[in-house]
Amino acid sequence: MPTPAKGTRLGGGAAHERLMLANLSASLFEHKRITTTFTKAKRLSPYAERLVTFAKRGDLASRRRVLGLIADKGIVHELFTDIAKAMENRDGGYTRITKIGNRKGDNAPMAVIELVLEPVSPKQAVVKEATEAAVKAAPVEEVQVEEVVAEEAAAEETK
To answer: How confident is the model at residue 10, as a pLDDT?
Structure first.
């Protein structure tokens, strides 16, 4: 387990921060997007992404590990069935944080943190396939160019 971040905690001690992050992540998985302060959203993002990574594994040990952090079995079930299936082709970056301005009462910077449930853009997949195809085709093109040059040289010699 990594050592916790040094400095002030979100609202108190380390135990309170762990509980707060667990509750925020449960709300995030239940509602798919929540509004909170920007600082809490930044602390929540790696925590929630780690839980999604466990859910993508899908084994019993991962489910028990997540159940140790999030008490609601219904939310854990939704995480492992719906959210993990939506994220199966995505390699990280499961959350998105968007700043929305300051809160009226205390002027705290607010943000919306949401799960990125859209599929990975097909354009990126096409570009990746095209670059792989270009790499495979590159040696063939060089051989064809050398053959054409050799044929042109032979044609000039016959003239």
So the answer is: 80
Q: Are 112 and 32 in contact (CB under 8 A)?
A: no
- Full 3-state SS string of 12-77: CCHHHHHHHHHHHHHHHHHHCEEEEEHHHHHHHHHHHHHHHHHHHHCCHHHHHHHHHHCCCHHHHH
Instruction: Give the residue with greater pLDDT, 60 vs 136.
Output: 60
Q: Which residues pair with 33 in a beta bridge?
A: 114
Give the contacts of 37 (CB within 8 A, at least 6 positions apart).
Answer: 103, 108, 109, 110, 111
Q: For residues 64 and 60, what is the distance between their CA atoms, to the nearest angstrom?
A: 6
Say how far residue 146 (Cα) sits from the centre of its chain.
Answer: 45
CA 95 to chain centre: 6
Give pTM, 2 decimals: 0.72
Q: Residue 6 is encoded by which pair of tokens?
A: 């040094």
Cα–Cα distance list, 139 to 94, 101, 127, 131, 150 (Å) = 38, 54, 20, 14, 17
